[in-house]
Amino acid sequence: MFTKEEKRFQxxxxxxxxxxxxxxxxPIILLFMSSISSDASLIxxxxxxxxxxxxLYAFEYxxxxxxxxxxxxxxxxxxxxxxxxxxxxITTPLAYMLSYKLLVGRGFxxxxxxxxxxxxxxxxxxxxxxxxxxxxxxxxxxLLIPGLVTNGMYIMLMKSYFTASIPDEIQEAARIDGAxxxxxxxxxxxxxxxxxxxxIGLFAGxxxxxxxxxGFIYLQKRTDLFSIQNLLNxxxxxxxxxxxNPSNITNVDSGLAAIPTVSIRMAMAVLGILPxxxxxxxxxxxxxxxxxxxxxxx
Length: 298
Known about the structure:
The protein is an all-alpha fold. The chain contains 15 helices and no strands. It has two domains: 4-45; 58-296, MetI-like (MetI-like fold, Orthogonal Bundle), CATH 1.10.3720.10. Helix 4 (68-99) crosses helix 8 (152-165), helix 4 runs antiparallel to helix 11 (194-210) and helix 13 runs antiparallel to helix 15 (263-296). The protein is flat.
């Protein structure tokens, strides 16, 4: 049974968490409501939690590009799935290896991984290296590969989890029973590391889904390989250009008046974040547990 003080604290804590939850959710609600408002009402009345005039024209305008948006969504899904799978395939064995206390050169290898979190070669050398050595320009790999070599934080976070949260006694018992190191890794360490693996997978997935920089830099001719973020960014740039330079384009005034310049930004943001919002609730429990055990204890 809870004491009166504990009940009061529980009620107070719940009220505080509800307030913080509303603060976190309200911008998303405002974003969605603005996306289904007419452009004229947003310009005249501003943003509101209840649209003065409902309109889906912003979404209709986005999808008027034919199959560009569905295709960009498909590319983003394939990119995210491949990126998460390869990131975990690289990160998990390397982190496990660095957590093995008897590994020769463990300290140097750990510092080598940590060093990549502090310094990088810069944009120009990176671009030259990827385009002249790896030849990923205007290919799908230009969206995939750069994200795979910048996961030093993921490795260190998972290493901390392996070190602090998986008892050495369990692994030693398996080795004494004759299990190979590969079997210890696959049958003991990976199942126990499910929270941190889910966490790293979520981090990698969000990174790949939200990435637009790689496509902006490396996809110059193959715009058909644009992810959803690249496509929405390009559409927004085109709309801004038309809005700021109507005098330079003949017969643009009539078409420009039909462009939802305000609500379309909200619609594009909704399309960009919708998959993340749908997936996050299913991985939240493991996400919180992975961060707590892998970060605080480590």
